[in-house]
Design a protein that fits this description.
Helix content is 32%, strand content 27%. It has 300 residues and is an alpha+beta fold. The protein has two domains: 150 residues, no CATH class; 130 residues, no CATH class. A hairpin with an 8-residue loop joins strand 1 and strand 2. Helix 3 crosses helix 4. The two termini are 18 Å apart.
Length: 300
């Protein structure tokens, strides 16, 4: 049985895009996100002078860029970055209550966060090097891994998604044993483009080997244009002339986002994806599945 989790979010000045603090019940960690425009207010807070790790995020030449660092005094280090780095617009300060993190702890967390960001591939890292993982004893390693797990759980809830890895291994999909009715296809006969996908655990996963358009063909100001370009930049979609191929199983939040990456334009994924065998649209398949599951629940 899945165990739920709760997180407390405190909007310091009452604005959703202002200074935000995230925390868990009975956790000693402290996460603060601040826009650069409110940096002076954030750095005036007491915890800003604690030991910890910090994340700077912004756009550099149109590409999401991230810098991850650690310091015995985050306030002074970020003040230095404010003078030397122009591209970032958001900072995240990660400390602990009572300033309990020591130098080994924060260097361990810094190294792990850099490794996680590299694996996820959602951004360009501004770090020149990856620090070696600091050895800790067994108890400290366990504590810091739990601390890291809470950080990585909290960050997406405050709009920091550069650490989320949407690549899915073969073991994370059910491709070999899936029934045809559980596999969805998007076929564009004009271009002979064919893509396959599955819905697994609330994610819509386009499968490795699926075909797509190599470039964005839709509106230049559509939100998905940047995502398509980013997937090409990261090698998730590899262009081969006018067309392209997915090199990984890749998870999307919706069938429409997945369809847009295949078609290179805005798309209604509920109608464009169809079951591989009966050609039922994803929307009709999903509605029938929901109706069946609700009926079973009510009859139990």
């Amino acid at each position: 049985m899945e165990t739920g989790r709760s997180i407390q979010l405190f909007f310091v000045n009452g604005k959703p895009d202002g200074i935000l603090i995230a925390n868990f019940f009975n956790w000693t960690g402290h996460i603060l996100r601040t826009p650069r425009l409110e940096l002076s207010t954030a750095l005036a807070r007491n915890e800003a002078q604690f030991s910890g790790v910090y994340i700077l995020i912004g756009q550099n030449d149109g590409v999401t860029t991230t810098y991850i660092g650690e310091s015995d005094n985050i306030r002074e280090r970020i003040k230095s970055h404010d003078a030397k780095k122009d591209w970032w617009d958001t900072a995240v300060l990660i400390t602990s209550e009572s300033d309990a993190l020591n130098k080994a702890h924060i260097r361990f967390l810094e190294s792990k966060l850099i490794q996680t960001a590299k694996i996820a591939g959602n951004c360009v890292l501004d770090n020149a090097t990856t620090p070696n993982l600091i050895p800790l004893n067994a108890a400290e390693t366990s504590d810091m891994n739990i601390f890291l797990e809470n950080i990585l759980f909290a960050l997406p809830t405050i709009g920091i998604d550069v650490f989320q890895n949407n690549k899915r291994t073969e073991n994370e999909t059910i491709t070999p044993t899936a029934r045809p009715s559980d596999v969805f296809e998007l076929y564009m006969p004009k271009y002979n483009i064919r893509a396959k996908a599955q819905q697994i655990d609330g994610e819509f996963i386009v499968l490795k080997g699926s075909e797509a358009h190599a470039s964005w063909r839709g509106s230049s100001d559509h939100n998905y244009r940047k995502l398509h370009a980013d997937l090409v930049r990261r090698g998730i979609i590899i262009p081969k002339g006018e067309f392209a191929t997915f090199t990984e199983n890749y998870a999307f939040s919706s069938p429409s986002a997945a369809a847009a990456m295949v078609t290179g334009r805005a798309a209604n994924g509920r109608t464009e994806w169809k079951t591989a065998d009966t050609k039922v649209s994803f929307g009709d398949w999903s509605d029938a599945k929901l109706k069946s599951e609700l009926s079973e629940t009510l009859n139990d």
